[in-house]
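G., before I forget:
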Amino acid sequence: QLQLQESGPGLVKPSETLSLTCTVSGGSISSSSYYWGWIRQPPGKGLEWIGSIYYSGSTYYNPSLKSRVTISVDTSKNQFSLKLSSVTAADTAVYYCARPMIGSSSWYLWGQGTLVTVSS
Amino acid sequence: EIVLTQSPGTLSLSPGERATLSCRASQSVSSSYLAWYQQKPGQAPRLLIYGASSRATGIPDRFSGSGSGTDFTLTISRLEPEDFAVYYCQQYGSSPPGYTFGQGTKLEIK
């Protein structure tokens, strides 16, 4: 069955760029008609949608993060990626990649999440 | 941007009791675009309800969702020990396109 797995550095220095990759297994990222997404959760806090990408590369982002976020897709590797620039301690969070339910605007399939800490 | 406000912040109940969780939107939300999630410590959220009232695959029928417009409710008819967790509502808006989550309700054992 389809599975998602986040990967990337667990520690990033302030002002640098956070980079994460989500690898999709058990199915093709380009065979599905929905947008894949990134969602984050600061420790002990709620969920925040970061942005979404279609396999064609079309994207849309949370307006509050838009100036710092880039999401891209590599269909040959069955992956999509997140870059968040100029990070601060407020960007410390568990980062999840996710896939919506077909025909729905709800997030059905999630990766296990990866904790990224911003600290010098 | 639509803001979702969940209440109460914490709900203390006993197994077997009925739980009623509220999600209020700052402006009208299409029922098609309202979802509920359950999250346990150290785990990713789990989709419970989509389209305001449809249960996701494998979700027990003790979970039900209702509501429209700006007021939505998640009801757990008879609490089981495994239901104690944090619950989030979420909406999708099209102008601008994007998703927002409520701040969560913690359901704890009394």
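The first strand of chain B starts at residue 4 and ends at 7. The beta strands of chain B are 4-7, 10-13, 19-29, 34-39, 46-50, 54-55, 63-76, 86-94, 97-101, 105-109.

More on Monday.
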